[in-house]
Amino acid sequence: MSLYPELDEAALAQVVEALRTGDTARLAPARAAEVAEARKAATFLDGVGVPVGDGVELDAALWLHNGDGRHPLIVMPSPWAKQGWTVYAVQALRFARRGYHVLAYTTRGFGESGGEVEVAGEADIADGIKALSYLIAQAGGPDAIGKVGFLGDSYGSGISQLVAAEDPRVHAVVALSTWGDLGEAFYENDTRHIAAVQTLLGAAKTARLSARTQQAFDDVLANRNVEETLRWAATRSPYHRVGKLNEREVPVLFAQAWHETLFPGNQTLKMFNALSGPKRLLLSIGDHSGPEMTGILGLPNRIWQDAHRWFDRHLLEADDGAAPETAAAFDADSGAEDQVVSEIMWSRALETRPTWDAATGNPERFYLTGPAEGAKDGGLLDKPGNGWRTTFTTGTDTPATVADAILLTGYAELAGLPKAYRTGRIDRTLAGVWTTAPLPSRHQLRGVPRLRVTVAPSAAESTFVAYLFDVNAFGIGRIITHAPYTVLDGAPDAPATVDLALQATGYDVPAGHRLMLVLDSVDPFYGPAAETPGTLAITSPDEDPSYLELPLS
Fold first, then answer.
1. What's the mean pLDDT in 310-318?
2. Is position 196 within any domain?
3. How do residues 154-169 score in pLDDT, each as one tens digit?
4. CA–CA distances in Å: residue 18 to residues 32, 37, 38, 155, 354
5. Per-residue model confidence (pLDDT) at position 345
6. pLDDT bucket at 330, cuts 50 / 70 / 90
7. Which range of residues forms the domain containing residue 501?
8. Which 8-state DSSP code applies to residue 120?
9. Is 397 a domain residue?
10. Are residues 459 and 538 in the same domain?
11. Parallel, antiparallel, or unpaired: how do β-strands 431-435 and 378-381 relate?
12. How far are the Cα atoms of 207, 208, 211, 308 from residue 113, in angstroms, in the given order?
């Protein structure tokens, strides 16, 4: 298992070899020209061992710009991948050509680096700080350098935010496919993200996990020591250090996929909204690291283009200390000053908005009702229809699932092939289903849909997953968003009111399609609270009707 299933390792290895030797014969002409220019602009060194203490060295590569004057610095901690720093080879050489000194390193416990994997723990933060000190020394010392940026994809993005919180030398951050609150990513609404943890373990098969790291992952999978794991996750969560970033108003650029399955988007959105300094959030079709993958391979990519512009704006300085002319792309007319850029499903249109609030639609309620006469499904209507009760059996999966496969379904989405759901095959004895009438006009969902529903599970602990689908006239659905929820320590068959935030979305539902809400009890992506089958009743009390609230623009 790899978090980068589309990564062409051989192509990256050829780039590194060409940087090392100058022999570009095996590269495509455009890439060969890039490498030749980078070798003129900067001195490249790989196989660098960065000492970080206790006899541990980090495998790294250096690009030291050859030009006169003070140059800004970029440090790039590697993703959760055996390929280590080489994932950044193409983008690092582009930064070097642009005038930066660059250090890309493989995080501890992976690849050729020493130490053990601590999942962005204190050792990883200390490593990032020492890697920066090493780069400063190689670049000529504090008086010879400009401003400092940290950039990471996936694992490296979390480390980058944490280092920036702790080291005042860091002036800006780029965090791609990142997390804000690791505890929420592992235990969303008290529901274990077992597929995410299994994927992380699979991707780290050749890494050296510390005993504490292995215990944390094992505990999530075994559903034990939850509070202990949440404390462990809190120290590894940028959200819990956001005050330190805000004290210095560190500029942070985020990139996230709408259908992110490793680090669900709402916890990153929480981090984004908590920041008070300059910030930008790029939201894209796909799953973890997919939207930025073409840039890793050296192909045109708007996310990496924004990353370069972000650092140019916040790190490059003219001789008089003012922002350079290269930052001119960030002007009001271009939308580059806006904090939020959303790629809309499935039109791929890009919408820019000045803030998250401005990007969010107005809430409109669709009330859950009982089935009309002769119908199997309940309705989603503009007025409450109470007095009904829908009960389904728990413990068996249905065709309503998050995705066919973690990461891979997202790559299909990027290729214009979102998963098709045959909604008629969802067994209504195993799920609750509510649908609208065909929509008279296009509905633009922008923001976080919210579900308020009264549930009465037969067990003291019970899990359900809520899915929102866009369904055409033939009953073929596309998933818009979803979220899991687990009821803990409840009295069997006692009603409980649940407020559930589904993952944020940017989605256009065509006129004539229906919206469909499905609740079922099993999804391979999540760990159930109880293994024994039972029932889950959904009701809508007169005094507190159940409804789905959609942010519509």
1. 90
2. yes
3. 999 999 999 999 999 9
4. 8, 12, 11, 27, 42
5. 97
6. very low
7. 362-552
8. S
9. yes
10. yes
11. parallel
12. 10, 10, 18, 27
